[in-house]
Write a structure and sequence with these properties.
- With 300 residues, this protein is of the alpha/beta class.
- The chain has a single domain, classed as 3-Layer(aba) Sandwich (Rossmann fold).
- It is built from ten helices and eleven strands.
- The strands form two sheets. Strands 1-2-4-3-5-6-9-10-11 form a nine-stranded mixed β-sheet, with helices on both faces. A two-stranded antiparallel ribbon has the order 7-8.
- Helix 1 runs parallel beside helix 2.
- The longest helix is centred in the N-terminal third of the chain and has 25 residues.
- The protein starts with a helix and ends with a strand.
- The N terminus and C terminus are likely disordered.
Length: 300
């Protein structure tokens, strides 16, 4: 039964992807696969939605995910419908990209993103926004804490406190197991080993300080955090903490939305598009640097 449900989800996803490519082709967007080298000489594979615009947004996936997940595809398509080019890619060790998957890897993914940004800047494109979902939200924020060449960042359901949320994947006694074995093998639903977490991987996560990173984001960088009120993977409290740490921040809490925005894709797209439109339309209301006053609750 589980396999049948899984196959049905995959088939529906494929149908939606085919529809996306068809609609984009009608709009005149060129969609092509693009490979970019990271600083470890690994090939990062992405899909470039090229509308011909100089402006470009880059979209980053979450933990053990890929560029082809529906939220990333829908966001990219929404931008090409607006005439803005978009690039969605796989971090190293994920999807089609080269490299070995690692559990932590937070700053390394930010480095991957830096290589992608540099590639497009070298091609004469202007990266106007970085958009990340879940762990991808952490990547775009860490990027902004280190670099000042992109001034608009969207964090969708990122995790602020990285010391939380590990028991769900590693088990309640993961610290004891790690001390005894030196690693933890995480299995999938079929009982097969999905990936291995080493002590170094665990320490990478535990020593990644989002609080310090967020305080390092320059006030000239506009940050939007979007989070669902029904997110059971990353609590909405994390979104509040981002709002308290980032100087130029806007917070949108979507009532009823889960971590993947499963039933709220249209609203997610609308929120993100409105924020990025503020870049090209120069709307002064988007430039506010307030914290609590910028919190928005969904009407839906």
């Amino acid at each position: 039964m589980v396999d049948e449900v899984f196959l049905e989800v995959i088939l529906l996803s494929l149908v939606e992807l085919i529809f996306v490519y068809f609609v984009s082709s009608l709009a005149g967007t060129q969609i092509r696969k693009l490979t970019i080298q990271n600083k470890h000489d690994e090939k990062l594979v992405g899909i470039f939605h090229d509308t011909g615009s100089k402006e470009l947004v880059i979209i980053c996936h979450g933990f053990k995910s890929s560029k082809d997940r529906i939220p990333m595809v829908n966001l990219a398509t929404s931008f090409d419908n607006e005439g803005i080019s978009a690039f969605r890619f796989d971090f190293s060790g994920n999807g089609e990209s080269e490299g070995v998957f690692q559990y932590g890897n937070y700053y390394r993914e930010a480095d991957d993103l830096h290589c992608v940004v540099q590639h497009f800047h070298g091609k004469g494109r202007l990266v106007i926004a970085l958009i990340g979902h879940s762990k991808g939200g952490n990547a775009v924020l860490l990027y902004a804490s280190r670099h000042r060449d992109v001034h608009n960042v969207v964090n969708i359901a990122g995790r602020f406190n990285l010391q939380r949320g590990m028991e769900g994947r590693l088990g309640k006694d993961f610290l004891q197991k790690m001390e005894q074995q030196g690693f933890i093998d995480v299995k999938n639903r079929r009982g097969r080993i999905d990936y291995r977490v080493t002590k170094d991987d665990l320490m990478d996560r535990l020593t990644t300080n989002m609080h310090a990173a967020c305080h390092s984001i320059h006030e000239s960088c506009r940050v939007l955090t979007v989070h669902g009120s029904k997110d059971e993977m990353v609590t909405v409290e994390d979104a509040m903490q981002f709002a308290n740490c980032i100087s130029n921040h806007k917070l949108h809490i979507t009532e009823g939305a889960d971590h993947e925005y499963t039933l709220h894709q249209d609203e997610l797209i609308s929120i993100v598009l409105d924020f990025v439109r503020g870049v090209t339309e120069d709307k002064p209301e988007f430039l506010s640097s307030g914290k609590e006053a910028n919190k928005i609750h969904s009407r839906f």
